[in-house]
Design goal:
homodimer; Alpha-Beta Plaits; six-stranded mixed beta sheet; 3 domains; 42% helix; Molybdenum Cofactor Biosythetic Enzyme, Chain A; Maf protein; alpha/beta
Chain lengths: 412, 412
């Protein structure tokens, strides 16, 4: 099945926003085995939308059009489809009720423009909008299926998940038993990981294995088609076990896991509490950990010790250590981790000291990094050398710290 | 002048990456007065790239094609243009030298595939790649100007700024005296700002005033066309003064300024030092400030006091304060700011306490925020109520803190 995704919106052509809907829909369709052959972006212009519809209908089984379903004058996507195929626009009762209720709740009357959001082309099946007012729709013309979705990403995603996905599944039995699992790896590059599992990727057709490079990490998405859910699960388990033979030491989580959520989980499972001491990252580790709701159960807090003075005063780093080894050193990282663990009375203390750049510091180039991890009966220090600009080094430094903390568990 | 932007890359159609180049180029071209009528994304496929070229050439004066200039087999953009117009591909000497040098420095030999990055279509003018190896080019066929640029965003941006922009300027005299200034506002919404300067926006043609909503802030970009640079500067000054009559109290900076760079500048200008105390933001304020290279000159460090216990122990917040008012309170914010100023021996201490959500805390809903600012002879506390999810509340909380610190200067 071939598809084109048409995004409608002059703001896209002015560069005010990016076509993130195109990426989201491409991912979803690819996942379902649909071949996306083209993205097109056109402005809020009836004629140009019609031209895009004509061109897309010739070459595709499926055409998804996003945007232009709102209440303003320049929202003309549904009009373009109606004019192109000489169809009437009619009100969907439920969508109209949604518009009326929305305004009634605010003690207002909807205008005719507001009501237009409940219009669909006659013969289409309507998709409900769970997070907004403009309804979506699917309309089949000859061999082409047109799917119209609202432009705001949140509305589009919710409509796709709750309405379009089940609709497509009902069109094709194989959708119902399509099961995916994403394996998340840290500490290995995309090409190195691919080289290790290359034969598996090439040989496998079910489950399929799709590598994808994320920010500082790599994922493999396993997707299986089966008529039985339990069997599908089992096939994913087997494939994961096979993959882990080649690169299991880098696997840290699944699906929506992050290094930060795994750190909190790890600390919680062990019944511990955590404190952080940060120099070059200036609070980014603490911020990343507390991004996760529920962090307060295990995270005591931390010290941002940007100056040498604060390392001494807040974390009891020895003046002699700083003089002899400098603040960018194994010794300083160890004392920072011990210091924060003691000062915040936590079970585990983790520290970061190094050079973010752009300039050298104490004779060390940007990217030099020392990570200290302090437990009640043991201290560890790791030295790493990262590449990249200031922002990249800082971002990767906090991930390195988390990865090492998680690796301890594996007895590495 | 009408333009279409074609992005080449199967990874875009698979949803692995988003077409950020489309947005960037749209912004640049719009800024230059070029009308962008269409974006197209096609895969790494010779035939489909040629079809896209044919269609775009019919309707546009300018066609920008991004991607597909790299060293691998599926990089066929230059081949598509060459085949379409029956042109030879020839090596650019400088680009070839760049490839050779790159590999020599690594004690390697470039392959023929690597050398392909130095090929251009005969008759084109070559654009140098300052951050990569694939050269870009501009080729005129009849009335259409084709501009080929590399896909990696960093390479594309640098090439656009250093090569394409001056080239376009040379094509059209008015480019040479196109001058822009971006005014950055915080604390006022897009529609409220537009309402205040609505008449100016409508009346003005030179300079033009373009409002744009950024993340948590709004900008106005003033662009003037003039044959004299000094005169252009003066027109921008006058327009800025006019705008500031209506919303000057929200203006915090220009062009690449951020609230964080302005805070550092503010502290530095006053000869002060700064320390931070964070509860709900968990280190994000410290992290944002230390994102700016040079922060170490004024930033002492800070305490992340996520638990009540750590607020008492690390910042000397009174147990009675916590019991009587709770940690989400004016009193706690004040004591945190005083505490961190004293503990880190800084001139200014700034604190954040509140509720990030998703749950209520101490009876306060998510978004409740107290900001404390402590100077040697004065303390201030601000209460704010933010809306949004956990991530938004945390992000905006650190910006609110910075905005208030900067506002103090204005005697607000």
């Amino acid at each position: 099945m071939n598809a084109e995704i048409i995004a409608v919106g002059t703001e896209l052509l002015l560069g005010q926003i990016s076509n993130t809907n195109g990426q989201y829909l491409s991912k979803q369709l690819t996942h379902h085995g649909v071949n996306v052959y083209k993205h097109t972006v056109v402005g809020d212009n009836l004629l140009r939308i019609r031209q895009a519809i004509q061109a897309a209908a010739k070459a595709n089984d499926m055409v998804i059009i996003t945007g232009g379903l709102g209440p303003t004058e320049d929202d003309v996507t549904r009009n373009a489809l109606a004019e192109e195929y000489d169809l009437d626009l009619v009100y969907d009762e439920r969508a109209l009720q949604q518009v009326e209720s929305f305004f009634q709740e605010r003690n207002q009357q909807p205008s005719d423009a507001n009501r237009r959001q409940a219009l669909y082309v006659q013969g289409a099946q309507v998709f409900q909008n769970h997070t907004g007012l403009a309804c979506g729709m699917v309309y089949k013309h000859e061999n082409t299926m047109f799917i119209l979705l609202p432009g705001p990403p949140r509305e589009l995603k919710t409509m796709f998940e709750k309405e379009v996905d089940p609709f497509l599944a009902a069109q094709d039995d194989t959708y119902a038993f399509l099961l995916s699992r994403t394996l998340r790896f840290y500490g290995i590059g995309e090409s190195a990981l691919e080289a290790r599992v290359h034969d598996l990727i090439v040989e496998q057709t079910n489950p399929t294995i799709a590598p994808l490079a994320g920010e500082d990490e790599v994922t493999l998405r396993l997707t299986v088609r089966d008529t039985d859910r339990k069997n599908a699960e089992k096939q994913l388990d087997n494939m994961e076990a096979e993959i882990c033979k080649y690169c299991g030491e880098f696997l840290y989580g699944y699906d929506d896991d992050t290094l930060f959520s795994k750190v909190i989980e790890h600390i919680k499972i062990n019944g511990w509490s955590l404190a952080t001491a940060e120099s070059l990252t200036g609070g980014q580790l603490g911020s990343s950990i507390t991004d996760i709701a529920g962090a307060s159960e295990v995270y005591q807090g931390g010290a941002i010790t940007y100056s040498d003075e604060s390392k001494q005063k807040q974390l009891n780093v020895d003046a002699a250590t700083l003089q002899q080894h400098g603040s960018v050193s194994q010794a300083c990282a160890r004392e920072m981790a011990e210091g924060v663990r003691s000062r915040y009375q936590s079970d585990v203390g983790i520290s970061l000291t190094g050079v973010a750049g752009p300039d050298d510091q104490e004779g060390h180039p940007p990217g030099t990094l020392f990570i200290g991890i302090s437990y009640p009966h043991m201290n560890r220090v790791y030295e790493r050398h990262l590449s990249g600009d200031r922002e990249t080094i800082r971002r990767r430094a906090v991930k390195e710290a988390c990865a090492w903390l998680l690796n301890e568990e594996k007895g590495d």
